[in-house]
Amino acid sequence: MKQVPIVYHPAYEALLPDGHRFPMRKYGRLAEVVAEIGLAPDGFVKPEEASAELIALAHDRAYVDQVLACSVPREIERRIGLPVSESVVRRARASAGGTLLAARLALQHGLSGSTAGGSHHGQRETGAGFCVFNDVAIAAKALHAEGAIRHALIVDLDVHQGDGTADCLRDEPDLFTFSMHAEKNYPVRKIPSDLDVGLPDAMEDDAYLEALQAHLPRLFDAIEPDLVFFNAGVDPHRDDKLGRLCLSDEGLRRRDGYVIEQARSRQIPLVAVVGGGYSADIDALARRHAIVFEAMAAWSERE
Prior knowledge:
The protein has eleven helices and seven strands. The protein has helices spanning 25-36, 52-55, 61-68, 74-80, 86-109, 135-145, 163-168, 205-213, 216-223, 249-264, 282-302, and strands at 6-7, 111-114, 152-156, 175-182, 195-199, 227-231, 270-273. The protein has a seven-stranded parallel sheet, with helices on both faces.
């Protein structure tokens, strides 16, 4: 079996105050689960932390400098929902570097993923919704600027609309943003993606897959992307405390397998990031996040 390269950095798991509601421990546990089930037999690939110059491809430089100095205005820190501490900043930089490295590995190997990333509420001039820097937007802009890709498709299946990615890439017609999400969920004020599909509350597996199948093939065929960024958020799961949809573990597995199949059957490279997922049961949450890595490994057996 050809191993799918998986990117991980110890800084993905930042230090937070005791009792903080963000399930930060899931990142370290995800890496453990991925290793336990044999998906990284040769170990993980470790990224470099993103530089200010790299991050500023997608974000306003003044905001980048504020974050790196841990001096963002209190209002922005509240919007982010995380303390902008040295540990959280290092996590944001490692996550951005990790998604870019995973994207380069996908271009080389066909499939790759990072055990973090998907910070899709990070906008040009601010963070929000537990997102400091928008790793997918940064990676897409970097690869496009250097000529490694001409066209990219961002497939964002986190339960929340990808407002920050839409904002960061709004002037990039070659970088297409597609978000399928729970319409009534956060954010209240959505920034339009190139294509938004808002879903009703409590949608279950079959109806969800039908909605995805109605859009994804035609997007692949129309855009002919050189690379797909897949935000495989697991917060559409029925047990997620911040989701409004009702997917099962099997529904997530079918979803991830379908996205990967649509890309790889066309010989299009795909890079996966983990996106959102919220539960007090960290082990169950990490195992949900591992599904996309299992799906990539299963596909690689066929190639």
